Amino acid sequence: MQLILKAFYIFQKDIRQEFKTRYAINAIVLFAVVTLTAVSFSIGTFAAGDEVLAALLWIILFFSAMSGLAHIFVREEETHTSDTLKLVAPPMSIYLGKYLFNFFLLLLLEFITVPLFFAVMNFSISGVWPFLASLVLGSFGLSAGATMIAAIISKASAKGALFAVLSFPILLPVLIMGINATRIVIREESFAAISGPLQALFAYAVVVVTASLLLFDFVWNE
Amino acid sequence: MELEISAKGINKYFGEKRIFKDINFDVRNGESIAIVGHNGAGKTTLVRILCGLIRQTDGSIRYTVDGKKIERENIYPYIGLVGPYLELYEELTAQENLDFFAKMRNMTNPQARIAELMEKVGLSGREHDEVKTYSSGMRQRLKYVFALLHRPTVLVLDEPTSNLDKEGTATVYQIMQEQKKDKILILATNDEADLKYGDKQIAVNS
After folding, report:
1. I need a labelling partner for B114 at 20 to 30 A (CA). Which of A11, A127, A202, B21 fits?
2. Which chain B residues are closer than 8 Å to A222 by Cβ?
């Protein structure tokens, strides 16, 4: 219980810092909006099918997330506060707190980007609730993997490049499953129709969170 | 609470480069040690090893609390650390920082303690200013509040008086004097005036 409570305190602290600097929020939201604008201009003259648009939506979300999710650990290293945090918090609470923050950031990104995407790209789906479920489960998985990789790369010198390179193979399953789920909800409106991708997204998130909780101590302390 | 730190044969290498070798000492409540050595000798590295922030390459450090051995990762609640590489969250106010640390240290009703320490280091009235607006001397004073907040059994001070004016230095000497009465004080310094507060000296060199 103490671990969860301390994770929440870390999340609170990170939210407070983020709303004062708005570094990660600005990075991911601006990246998403710029990419969305570029995509809409590029394919505006083609009549891109809904299945292509489903893939584009997840690609925009994925790369926007990549532009800001590493910040949560990089900031601790760059401002020399990681030792301070190490002295006061158990590693598991640190991972959970940072994970919660990245999950919140992704939800915020989706809250802004997805309606914009639907409006700009004239994209429509039949199953709204299954689609939202796939977004939330996708965010669980994306933020779990990205948080762990952010911790790994935070001590390296070429952080940005390393984050993208390491994240891509690990987070690729989320991207594929998210695209599959969205393709299905274009025509199907029941949860049953996308139960496969949803189960896979959930299983992925559970596996990555569990592995991260087991391994984070080594990453953080070595 | 009785705490003992026993270091045996501590060596540290960064890659092929040896930082220091064969550091041995014991320290317990009521004692203080000063770690001395020229710039780059590895004083800070040894401090970070003692605080459990990094691992030594060889040798062992045994922490004993009331006769029971505790692991390296469980030493943090007993330690208060002040060092030039240890920063507080500068986007947050001093009060927000200290509230966060108090909650993380499981302190109940920490406000009286925070007020007492802020008064002691001369930062009363500046609690609600963001840390980024503090001068380097004020930041150093605030680090003392962070380090002393949970009444640590071991106070570890790396460059204890750096950036401090005469008044701040006097406060730090008072803190050191109080700490070494019945708890453990570990200093890493080259300042002759600071060295008076170390009962034993440990020379670090490669």
Report:
1. A11
2. 55
